[in-house]
Design brief:
The protein is an alpha/beta fold. The strands form four sheets. It has a five-stranded antiparallel sheet with strand order 4-3-2-1-8. Strands 10-11-12-9-13 form a five-stranded parallel sheet, with helices on both faces. A three-stranded antiparallel sheet has the order 5-7-6. Helix 28 packs antiparallel against helix 29 and helix 36 packs antiparallel against helix 37. The radius of gyration is 40 Å and the shape is elongated. The N and C termini lie far apart (148 Å).
Length: 957
């Protein structure tokens, strides 16, 4: 019977070498992980190759003094077969029914001296793998080439699947000419035990292992060689590799090392290059196929899809492929795996499957390394290498939807009784291992998980039974954050506040969804909704705010014990959201009254003010400016008693607008000029949109309108542009859309600056794509048709009339009389006289009803032109003179000039040159010489002609 004592022989079969004395099995020179009992079984079978070895003999050989059940033998045989058959068609071990097992492979035996135990006997380095085809990485490769020229040890660090190995090989091929002794690639991923790391390097470089000090033999072999040594996949051997690399660098001054790892090796002279994900198109850009494919991630996707069939990226697919690449964080491996399924599912379905997490990221390529066959395998590989505290923290961090801060991590880790020091240490290690990304911005640090890592860690959170407790802690932590955010509105700069909270909106959404999904946590959901309102305002996400507030109000009513302050906040947000709907709801006025009433009930002046302001704004908007002015007097008086000067200023601004609409233009301008002086300092910070629009933007907009009416269209356009620019700088879409739709677009159209008008319309449409705020949709369509009418577009007048109908149907009544007059003029220019008469009559009736004295001169002017085209010259002249008189009385100099131009043209046509001249001179004389705008230039040119004609007539006389 064979002795269980190990012998000094080496057994060689297929790609394997078995060294019993060293308890070592090698495949192609690299150690194979195998259990001790399995190795004993293999030893006996190899010694007796070709013979049947009975089960009893195997049990006695492997367990010489212990009774074990035969099942133990079967388990070890099965494990041994798996090890030997991996990558080979050879069965090696055959079962002989009822007798035992037989080793079927041919075995060669080598006798080895005890003093020089056998090791790997490779005699030359393995050749460098072929140059890979790399997409979207030219900048990274160039930077690494430069680093290698300046440093002797460079480590490419990044998460699994980001392409570290591919880039390392590409860099090696690019610099190969600089190394006379070539480059050697050593794959360490198959090394399961750190003690075999040096054996793997020795096999890679071709060192004969004839002593116990393998590292010395490597150094002896590579001494004086000028070469590049690539050590791939070092992360699981990091402590050993640190020592190995330090010694290699110290002993081999002519050798350069390029390593890949998911964390730095922390060697003495290491230069770390963190390999980023591939560039992906931003979410807010609608790219064509031509533009999208310029991004590395999209280019890679298309290339891999084309390898499976005839795929061409279309303009329709471009945003979908871009979204897929964003969803996969630009990770090359993940993109390649998904792209291979393009012909199976199609691009739209692929995106849906990814969003719903139905897509298994497997490429089915059995020839690929196991760690690259699925993205899940790469994550499993990383996760298994974590310590317990690292794994626990990673699971907990998966609850965050996006970026998080150190304090967030500390708050979550309190669930498992980690103290701050333990959390900070574990987070630092996770960051080092590329499982957490750290992003430094403006002196602060944010962390995030890649989407694939986050999804994987969330699965592990569920497996560990920690999902509900983790999500509950996340929801309460999010509530604390946003309740604090609400308190900070009064004291912090908007830019800093937004930097801290804007990127947490997805955490808010997730926390609310979880809370309302749990019957016992719905009040938490109500509180979260109320706390989120300021952020929704600043993000201009009014549609989302409205839907979530409605849900919270329903839950509050069902719960029945919602605190008044919460209900008050929700009602105020509901009223505000209703004001921005495409069709103004009939209950909007009631909602604002309820907001004010709840403010009184709760003795909360802030919401009393907001309710009064909202009610006043609503009344002005629907054409009841006198009622709005009454509410504004209440608003200003209450704000003054509280010394709330910012609210007082807002009341004065709104009062000025209301006054302008009722014809008190001088008073309105005086109020606004004073406010503009106060808020026109270059250093004036962008503020929160307390009353729906940023204060500096709102003041400039209101002033621009009053300037246009009162005779300074040039300055009005400049101030309107400033308002748009300030709104753009604030990032507040509501403020900018309001500035565009209600002020900049009408003012530039009325002033004849059609180029600027078209540009502003395009900006408004773009804002609509960013945030769908319904109120501006009909405004945009109406003014688009109005611009077309000014440019004599075919059918534009009829379209403009139809758009006006849509505007009124939506209860969009702000400046409705002026809009009617614009349509009437367009119809008149298009020759639709009867339609023009009907529309201008409606404009006049509506102006009287709404007390819209500001635009009455314009309505009278167009009514006069309608009569002139109808042949009633006398009535036409009376209406035009009345227009001039009304405009002069209220200080609407721009409208007065328009009427003067129309009347002078009529008088000139009648041959009354001097009367025409007098009318025009009187109106032009009210403007300064430096005033310049289209109609004033026309008037001055007309004056020149009339004066010449009057002079000729006098000379003739």
């Amino acid at each position: 019977m064979d002795s269980p004592e190990p012998d000094n022989k080496t057994y060689i079969f297929g790609p394997f070498r078995l060294l019993p004395r060293r308890q070592l099995l090698l495949r192609e020179g690299l150690p194979v992980r195998i259990g001790g009992r399995a190795l004993d079984i293999l030893t006996l079978l190899a010694r007796r190759s070709g013979q049947v070895v009975g089960k009893t003999e195997l049990l006695g050989f492997c367990w010489p003094s212990t009774f074990v059940h035969e099942s133990n033998l079967k388990v070890n045989i099965a494990a041994l077969r798996r090890v030997l058959s991996d990558g080979s068609a050879e069965p090696y071990i055959a079962t002989v029914a009822g007798r035992g097992y037989r080793f079927t492979a041919s075995v060669e035996v080598e006798q080895v001296e005890v003093s020089t135990p056998a090791r790997i006997v490779s005699t030359q380095a393995k050749p460098l793998l072929k140059r890979p085809k790399v997409i979207g990485r030219s900048d990274d490769i160039e930077r690494l080439v430069q680093k290698l020229a300046a440093a002797r040890c460079v480590t490419i660090v990044g998460p699994g699947g980001v392409g570290k190995t591919t880039i390392a090989l590409a860099v090696a091929h690019q610099v190969l000419a600089k190394y006379p002794h070539g480059a050697c690639f050593v794959d360490l991923s198959t090394v399961g035990d750190p003690q075999y790391a040096t054996a793997a390097i020795a096999a890679g470089v071709g060192a004969r292992q004839r002593s116990e000090d393998t590292l010395s033999e490597i150094i002896e072999l590579l001494h004086d060689r000028r070469m590049l040594l690539i050590l791939d996949n070092c992360e699981h051997l990091s402590s050993t590799m640190t020592a190995v690399v330090n010694r290699l660098l110290e002993s081999l001054p002519t050798v350069t090392l390029l390593a890949t790892s998911r964390e730095p090796l922390r060697t003495v002279s290491e230069h770390v290059y963190r390999l980023p994900s591939l560039d992906v198109p931003p979410a807010d850009r609608g790219l064509s196929a031509k533009n999208a494919i310029e991004f590395g991630a999209v280019h890679l996707f298309v290339t891999r899809a084309q390898e499976r069939g005839q795929y061409v990226l279309s303009d329709a697919d471009a945003p979908l492929v871009s979204a897929i690449c964003r969803r996969l964080d630009g990770i090359p491996l993940a993109i390649e795996l998904v792209a291979t399924k393009t012909f199976t599912f199609g691009v739209p379905t692929l995106l849906t499957m990814l969003e719903q997490k139905f897509l298994l990221l497997s490429n089915g390529e059995r020839m690929a390394p196991l760690r690259q066959q699925t993205l899940l395998a790469t994550l499993d590989w990383s996760y298994r290498l974590l310590s317990e505290d690292e794994a626990v923290l990673l699971r907990l961090l998966s609850v965050f939807a996006g970026a998080f801060r150190l304090q967030d991590a500390i708050a979550m880790s309190e669930a498992v009784a980690f103290d701050a020091t333990q959390t900070i240490d574990a987070l630092e290690r996770l960051t080092s291992k590329s499982l957490v990304y750290a992003d430094y911005q403006d002196g602060s640090i944010r962390y995030r998980l890649l989407e694939s890592t986050r999804a994987y860690a969330a699965e592990r959170l569920g497996d560990a039974g920690e999902r509900d407790s983790g999500l509950q802690r996340h929801a309460w932590h999010t509530l604390a954050l946003f309740e604090r955010a609400s308190e900070e509105l009064e004291t912090r700069e908007k830019r800093d506040w937004m930097a801290d909270y804007a990127d947490r909106v997805d955490d808010l959404r997730n926390a609310m969804s979880w809370s309302f999904g749990k019957t016992s946590q719905r009040m938490l959901g109500v509180r979260l909704t109320a706390a989120a309102i300021p952020l929704w305002y600043e993000l201009s996400s009014l549609s989302e705010m409205q839907s979530r507030v409605e849900r919270a109000l329903l839950a509050a009513r069902e719960l029945g014990d919602c605190p008044t302050d919460l209900t008050m906040k929700l009602i105020a947000a509901r009223a505000s959201g209703m004001s921005f709907a495409q069709h103004l709801a009939l209950g909007t006025e009631t909602a604002w009254n309820e907001c004010h009433a709840l403010g009184v009930e709760a003795n909360n002046v802030k919401y009393q003010l907001f309710g009064l302001w909202g009610l006043a704004a609503h009344l002005i908007y629907v054409g009841r400016p006198l009622e709005g002015i009454d509410r504004l007097h209440q608003f200003i008086a209450l704000a003054e008693t509280q010394a709330d000067w910012s609210a007082v200023d807002e009341g004065q601004r709104m009062m000025a607008l209301a006054e302008m609409y009722v014809g008190k233009i001088s008073s309105a301008r005086q109020r606004l000029e004073m406010l503009a002086t106060r808020y026109h300092r270059p250093s004036e910070p962008v503020r929160f949109a307390r009353f729906q629009a940023e204060r500096g933007v709102a003041i400039r907009c209101s002033l621009a309108l009053v300037l246009w009416v009162s005779g300074e269209p040039g300055r009005a356009m400049q101030v309107a542009r400033e308002a748009v620019e300030r709104a753009d700088a604030s990032g507040h879409v509501v403020s900018q859309s309001n500035a565009l739709a209600v002020f900049a677009i009408p003012i530039t159209l009325w002033s004849g600056d059609y180029e600027s008008c078209a540009r502003f319309l395009a900006m408004l449409e773009e804002n609509g794509r960013r945030e769908d705020i319904g109120i501006w949709r009909e405004f945009s369509r109406f003014f688009k048709s109005a611009l077309s009418a000014k440019l004599r577009g075919p059918g534009a007048a009829a379209e403009m009339k139809a758009r006006l109908g849509d505007l009124i149907a939506a209860r969009n009544l702000l400046r409705a009389p002026m809009h009617y007059s614009m349509v009437a003029e367009a119809l008149l220019d298009a020759g639709a006289l009867a339609d023009a008469r009907a529309v201008i009559d409606e404009a006049h009736a509506l102006a009287i009803k709404q007390v819209a004295h500001w635009c009455l001169p314009e309505i009278l002017r167009i009514a006069g032109l309608v009569e002139l085209h109808s042949g009633d010259a006398g009535r036409a002249e009376r209406l035009l003179r009345r227009s001039i008189k009304e405009a002069s009385a209220i200080g609407a100099l721009t409208l007065e000039l328009r009427a003067a131009l129309s009347l002078s043209a009529k008088l000139e046509g009648d041959g009354c040159i001097n009367r025409a001249l007098g009318i025009l001179e009187a109106s032009c004389g009210k403007f300064r010489q430096e005033d310049v705008f289209a109609e004033l230039r026309e008037a001055r040119a007309r004056l020149h002609v009339l004066r010449a004609a009057a002079g000729n007539a006098l000379s003739y006389a």
